[in-house]
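RECORD CONTENTS
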Amino acid sequence: MNIVVAVDKRWAIGNKGQLLVSIPKDHKNFRELTTGKVVVLGRKTLDTFPGKQPLKNRTNIILSRNPGFSVKDAVTVNSVEALLEELKKYPSEDVYIIGGDSVYRQLLPYCDTAIVTRIDHRYEADAFFPDLDKDEEWEQVSESDVETYFDLEYRFVTYKKKA
């Protein structure tokens, strides 16, 4: 399984239920990675999407503790165990964990690849992703050239879980 995340210098990912910043090339990269694939997200992340609707052209699986929660055009599961059972229907390399922070933390142990947009800025934040640079189970395997969006520098970095 894969994780896709955008982080700042402190591995922050959000503030008050919103992304830290919107970078068009990061969104394009996200679309290219996940279109036609399976995305796994929490209900709060779904709430940040336009119209609070699942992403088009993807299989959306929503992890929610609320057993009564359901949304049109998405599969809803109520536990990590139920999610892992549901994911057996799909090739592992086609599954992308897309947030938020509690979903990332619960599912990171099951992932082998992390595609991280590293933003060279420090934002006010209340949601964080685990620092893979400090995690001995993970290693950086590739890094793009530095990209610029206005005065913001960022790069795409891929991490793999060590065998």
